[in-house]
Amino acid sequence: MIITQTPFRISFVGGGTDFKDFFNVHGGAVISSAIDKYVYVIVQKRYFDDLIYVNYSKKEIVNDVEKLEHQLVREALKKTGITKGVEITTVADIPIAGTGLGSSSSVTVGLLNALYFYQGIQKSTEELAQEACEIEIERVGKPIGIQDQYIAAYGGLKRFNFLAHERGVEVVPMSLPEELYKELSNNLLLFYTQKTRKSETILREQTNNIAHRKNELLRLKTLVDRLEDVLLHADNLDAFGDLLHENWLLKKKLSTKVSDPQIDALYETARAAGARGGKIAGAGGGGFLLLYCPADAQRSVRAALSAYRELHFNLAHDGTKPIFMKPIHR
After folding, report:
1. Cα four-point dihedral sign 103, 24, 279, 196
2. Neighbour tally for 63: CB within 10 Å
3. How many domains does the chain contain in total?
4. Does pTM surpass 0.85?
5. 43: how many CB neighbours lie within 10 A of its CB?
6. Which domain holds residue 271?
7. In the Cβ-directed half-sphere of 100, how many Cα atoms lie within 13 Å?
8. 66: left (phi over 0), alpha (psi -120 to 50) or beta
9. Which part of the chain is the GHMP kinase C-terminal domain (predicted)?
10. pLDDT per residue over 223-275, tens digit each?
11. Do 16 and 56 contact (CB within 8 A), yes or no?
């Protein structure tokens, strides 16, 4: 039996520039962080039959990997060469679908890591991220970028540079002093908007709009340099919230489905109560609202948003990793 733990993530600035159609021409960049909410993937051998069992929000039992309805599990099994006699279970700290916290990529990265360890193979972090991108984008056909797979694999607070002309991804750790790192973590709040959405719908429109939104995407890319400067050189972090706000205004121009009147009203309520800035996590349209809120304003912001459930979290250092391994008796 193998159990892997893989973090969910929050993305701060630059989202949208991680789509291949954009960064292969112009280059892209994001700053994002893993958080201490996780998906756990359990892989164990079936000793008495050769069937494939998959347990998630439903249960599947099949005798042929091609019959699996769970696309990510099916393609990960094919990628890793496992075709029979295995049981896979996914368990998460929060609901997986529609949250905007990079859940599908966390599942894919954690699944690949577990399936390789199950076979006694240890893949590099880069290989796990690349293969997760291959599964989600090329095999399954999701209209998504590549930042989520990388932060799930690497963890921590990172800048990712997506290099033009297929020159790969550059991973840049944001090495903050511990006191500043804790302040940033403490000043970030997540509230559930009480709405879920299918990110593919929003992202497909965003993908189709890339040619028409080049200027907005280029401006989103410049925010990454500015946020890095705030993190590494500023005396305080309040400008972090201002840049989140600027990012949000640009992000709403990428697709008509990123926001709606309810989300806009919720965001403005938070800002009026003292939040410096924020954004809908992930593609938009629902899920979680991320806010940067200085400590002295957090009570008033929580009071103003008391009708919405808050997800308490911290930034997390680790990416995907095995947390339990029991040898397989053959």
Report:
1. negative
2. 10
3. 2
4. yes
5. 22
6. 178-314
7. 28
8. alpha
9. 232-307
10. 999 999 999 987 789 999 999 999 999 999 887 778 889 999 999 999 999 99
11. no
